[in-house]
Amino acid sequence: MRISAFVTVSLDNFIARKNGDIDWIEEANKNITENNDCGYFKYTNSVDTFILGRNTYEKIISLGSWHYSKPVIVLTSDLESLYVPETLKKQIATSNLNPITLINRLKNIDTLNHISIEGGFTIQNFIANHLLDDIIITKVPILIGEGKPLFGPISYDKQIMRVNSHAYKFGFNQDHYRFINLRNVI
Fold it and tell me: What is the pTM for the complete model shown?
């Protein structure tokens, strides 16, 4: 089972402003040439299940456009207060399990080959627990000065290897990295 992330960051490595706003991404997306999604559609087609952090889930719900067609698991410490629209209750599961326990439960599902992790804190948690196999990072040429960082504190160095890199004519740069580690799943 492959566990990966596909994320957009500012040049100074923020995924959102401090208040969670991603207006700078929306503005930058206006520069993307027609029919070019930087590989996101191909990536999401390879995914069987998405795991979202609560803040990311709530941001997506607040935008009013649900773009997931596959199962979604929302991680939250407070299952009772998470709002899931009635129309999405068959597609969305919630979990308060830690990443290792959750992945240990999911790894026994034969049809589950590729999981995508979304949300800064959730990605950081999966990295800290040696659960992320690879990450695709698309850098937008903008400095926002401060915000929510993609990466957080770690207890020791994480070795990664660049798999490939692509510079888009509209200014975005995309790097695909593979983590070099032993998966910490029991």
Answer: 0.92
User: d(Cα 79, Cα 95) in Å, to the nearest integer?
Assistant: 7
For residue 69, pLDDT beyond 60: yes
Which burial class, exposed, middle or buried, applies to 34 when counting CB atoms under 10 A from its CB (0-12, 13-18, 19+)? exposed
Q: How confident is the model at residue 2 (pLDDT cuts 50, 70, 90)?
A: very high
From its phi and psi, is residue 172 left (phi > 0), alpha (psi between -120 and 50) or beta?
Answer: beta
Whether the Cβ atoms of residue 115 and residue 95 lie closer than 8 Å to each other: no
Question: Do 7 and 148 meet the contact criterion of CB atoms below 8 Å apart?
Answer: no
The domain 2-179 is classified under which CATH number: 3.40.430.10, 3.90.650.10, 3.30.360.10, 2.40.30.110?
3.40.430.10
- Contact (CB, 8 A) for 3 and 96: no
Distance separating alpha carbons of residues 81 and 165, to the nearest angstrom = 41
Amino acid letter, residue 8: T
pLDDT of residue 35: 80
| pLDDT value for 110 | 87
Taking alpha carbons only, the member of 131, 122, 182, 132 closest to residue 152 is 122
Q: For 103-159, what is each residue's pLDDT tens digit? A: 999 998 989 999 999 999 999 999 999 999 999 999 999 999 999 999 988 888 888
Answer whether 22's CB lies under 8 Å from 140's CB.
no
